[in-house]
Design goal:
Elements: E1 6-8, H1 18-29, E2 36-39, E3 42-43, H2 50-68, H3 75-80, E4 90-92, E5 108-111, H4 115-118, H5 125-141, E6 144-147, H6 150-160, E7 167-169, E8 193-197, H7 206-216, E9 224-228, H8 235-243, E10 248-250, H9 256-265, E11 268-271, H10 280-287, E12 292-295, H11 299-304, E13 309-311, H12 316-328, H13 331-347, H14 350-361
Parallel strand pairs: 1-2, 1-4, 4-5, 5-6, 6-7, 8-9, 8-11, 9-10, 11-12, 12-13
Antiparallel strand pairs: 2-3
Helix pairs in contact: 2-5, 7-12, 10-13
């Protein structure tokens, strides 16, 4: 395996969620290993921004949508449309972007989760169609695979087998960009409140969380429930529900100084998601001293460990009981859980993440834990 790779960072054209920042940090931290960076069909030294990013992103989405609308399209059809623009192997930072490029066994694909396959009802039809094509192409060509959690690797193996050059798990890290610095109170937000930081989309289970907040009775005690994050799939139905539910405050995307204030003043963090590749925001909340309420026996609990409070994400009653416990938890239990979370946070650092990727790209296919 060579020490030089193309980094396919096409997701940067349309994505500003956690996956984007993680992949951006990976490229910036290992620039010596990525002499070329591809954004869909273009190689650029610097990441596109502003109107350039929007135009390239629009063109890419149009091409992807045309692919999704070809009902009889097979991975073999897709492969015939592809070309190899460089002799270097490629690291694909999302499986979707293997579709318009030749995929080879010496390439590497980073898989965050296989949600569009296992939970298609949480995604739009085109996304499901495209990811099915992408994963089928991966299954045929057999590149090296990297996963962000054991949960993601297990689900991928169940669907597509395990006969790949390697299938490594490299856990993500806790970003510290919101940890230090001044804070600013968002307009209209007053303690006490529970907090969710996540994209406003169906897979985050926000409809059940809103119902659980009402069932918990915390609103009658003066609590509110604050949701902040960018809009995602089926955001309108969630926003409509929030507008008609007392005590729910939706902020959308907030700058870092406001996010710091929210973390520092919340009574607890709530995200019993229906699907996560790793559940990093729950760890970030724990790093700020908040006990996270997450889905039991999921990638979230794998990431956060025993410090999190696990609930049944399909049960409004279970989520409501968890919300009440976040508020009522005695100091001894709270401190014990926070100690466990801090220990976990201390293990998941950016330096460790970059070192494990560097070891992999240098040819070590089995990475020490």
């Amino acid at each position: 395996m060579t020490n030089a790779y193309v980094a396919d960072f096409s997701l940067a054209l349309i994505n500003r969620t956690g996956a984007y920042y993680i992949c951006r940090d990976l490229i910036r931290g290992l620039l010596d290993l990525f002499p070329r960076i591809r954004y869909w069909r273009f190689f650029r030294k610097h990441e596109p921004v502003g109107i350039t990013r929007k135009v390239l992103g629009w063109a890419m989405l149009m091409e992807l949508r045309r692919l999704a609308q070809e009902d009889r399209l097979t991975p073999e059809d897709v492969a015939r449309c592809c070309s190899r623009a460089t002799a270097l192997p490629t690291v694909y930072l999302d499986p979707l972007y293997v579709l318009r490029n030749e995929l080879r066994p010496d390439d590497i694909v980073l898989c965050h989760d296989v949600g569009p396959i296992t939970h298609p009802h949480l995604y739009d039809h085109d996304s499901v169609t495209l990811y099915k094509l992408a994963y089928r192409k991966i299954q045929v060509e057999r590149p090296g695979m990297v996963f962000v959690s054991e949960t993601s690797r297990r689900e991928f193996s169940h669907l597509y087998g395990s006969d790949y050059p390697f299938m490594d798990v490299i856990p993500l890290y806790v970003r510290n960009t919101t940890g230090a610095g001044p804070d600013h109170q968002p307009a209209g937000i007053e303690p006490p409140f529970l907090l969710t930081v996540a994209a406003i989309e169906r897979r985050k289970n926000l409809d059940r969380c809103v119902a659980a907040f009402i069932r918990s009775g915390l609103f009658r005690e003066g609590f509110s429930y604050v949701l902040c994050g960018p809009r995602g799939y089926a955001a309108e139905e969630i926003l409509n529900l929030a507008e008609t539910t007392p005590g729910i405050q939706v902020l959308g995307y907030v700058p870092d100084e406001e996010l710091r204030w929210l973390y520092r003043n919340a009574s607890g963090f709530v995200l019993p998601s229906l699907l996560e590749g790793v559940g990093l925001t729950a760890l970030e909340a724990g790093a700020h001293g908040l006990i996270p309420l997450v889905s039991a026996d999921s990638a979230q609990t794998e990431a956060v460990g025993e410090g999190a409070l696990g609930v049944d994400p399909l049960s409004v009653s279970s989520i409501a009981e968890g919300m009440v416990k976040l508020v009522r938890m005695d100091n001894e239990e709270r401190e014990h859980r926070l100690q466990l979370i801090r220990r976990r946070v201390g293990m998941l650092t950016l330096n460790r993440f970059l070192m494990r990727w560097r070891s992999l790209l240098a040819g070590k296919q089995e990475i020490a834990a």
